[in-house]
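We both want to read C-alpha cells more fluently, so let's practise on a single case. Would you supply a protein for us yourself, any chain you care to pick? Would you write everything just below, so we can both look at the same thing?
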Amino acid sequence: MSSGNIHKRILDLLATILKMVQEGTRDPSKVAAVLQSIVDEARSGLRRIFETETLPVPATNGTRIFANSGFVIGYIDPGYKPQSGATPPTEAAVYEMTEESTYAQIFGRVGKDRQRWQNEDQVVAFCSDHRDKLRAGGYGTFFELGGGFVADVHVFDDGRLYVYVYRLSYDIVWHAEDRPRVVLPQVTQ
C-alpha cells in the first residue's frame, strides 16, 4: 500500500470511529483508551500482547524467593538484596519489545511513575500462574524490581525456569527480533 493510500485509509478509519462515537454505538471513553494505548505503545518501544486481558497476580506474603521456588539461578548481581513484605493482589500486562533497547531504555520509556514489582514473590506468582505467557525458547521475559534491578526469566527447552538478576543500568542491548517480553504491573483502581 502506498504512503498516500495508507494515510487515506487512516483518515477513513478515524472518520468511521468518530461517527460511531457521535451516534452512540461506541463508548467514547473506551475509544479514547484504545487510542491512548496505541500512542503509548508507539512511544515505549513495546507492543502489548494478549491485548484483551490483564493477568491477575494474587496477594503474596513476600516469603518466596527465586532460590526456594524451583528457579535455576543463572546469575544474581552481588548488589541485589531481595525485598520482603506482603503485597496486595494486582494485575499485569505483557508486552513484546519492538525496538532494540537496554533495560534502562525499556523501562525508562514506560515513564518515571511506572509500577515496579515489589519483591520476588510477585514474580514467582506470575511465573507460576501464567507460565504460558513467558517468552519460551530460552529468550527472556523481563520484570523490573524495586531498587534498580531487573529479573530476567528464561524458559529453556528442558522446561525449567532460569532467572538472572541484573542492575537496571546493565548496558547490554536486547534485540527486538528475539521478541523479549516485558511484564508490567498495572495500576488498579
Observations:
- The beta strands are 46-49, 55-57, 72-76, 90-97, 140-145, 149-155, 161-167, 181-186.
- The radius of gyration is 19 Å.
- The chain has a mean pLDDT of 86.
- The first helix runs from residue 3 to 23.
